[in-house]
Structures are given as C-alpha cells and as structure tokens.
What we know:
The protein is α+β, with helices and mostly antiparallel strands. It is built from 3 helices and 5 strands. The strands form 2 sheets. Strands 1-2-3 form a 3-stranded antiparallel beta sheet, with no helix packed on it.
Amino acid sequence: MSKFCAFVEKQEGVLVCRKCNTEMKTKFSPEKVKRKCSVNKPPGIVQKGLHFGGALVSHIADGGKKVTDEEWEQRLNICEGCEHKRPNANSCSICGCGLKAKARWRSEDCPINKWPKLD
C-alpha cells in the first residue's frame, strides 16, 4: 500500500484523496501531486488514552465479558485484511487500539463497523 495520497479530480482545480478524503486546491493534475497520506497515521498518545479509557469503562460495565475464541479469530482475520491495520504494529490506525485486546472484549466494536454484530 502506498504511503501517498491517491488523488482524483473532484472538480476543476480541486483534488480529493480516495483513502483519507483530504481535499486540495491545485492547478496540477492528480498524478503530479505527492502528499503523505494520513490514512495510516495513528492517533496521538492523548487520543489513544481516551479511546482506551472509554473501552475499559465499557468492558467493566459489560462485566468483563469476552467473545468466544471463534469470534475473536474472525475479528482478527477481518483486521488482518483491513487497510487501517498498521503494519508491524498490530494496532488500528483509526483508534490506535491494540487489535488482540480490542477484538477479545465483547463490549468493543470496529471503529468502521467491519466486525459482525454480536447477539
């Protein structure tokens, strides 16, 4: 996966990245513009802490319940093929959570709703 934005022309003089939705006004064509894409840039430490804190509260409120081994593996397999999984980090570039822990907690969902809903 390229680290650069995949720009397409939205309208004359305006490009938009298909991956991160960044818009840019320019006189150049999409193939001439190079910009590091923010789609795989993880959230900062404060944002990660807020996400984890919210997840922990939800997990405790749910009684600390976990998904079955089959559901856990299904969630991890979905993450493995996701464009937002950070390579070599085993974490999500949207929420910053560690995938093995997040996928195990029943109270948690994928931030872009890729995991199947639990009964």
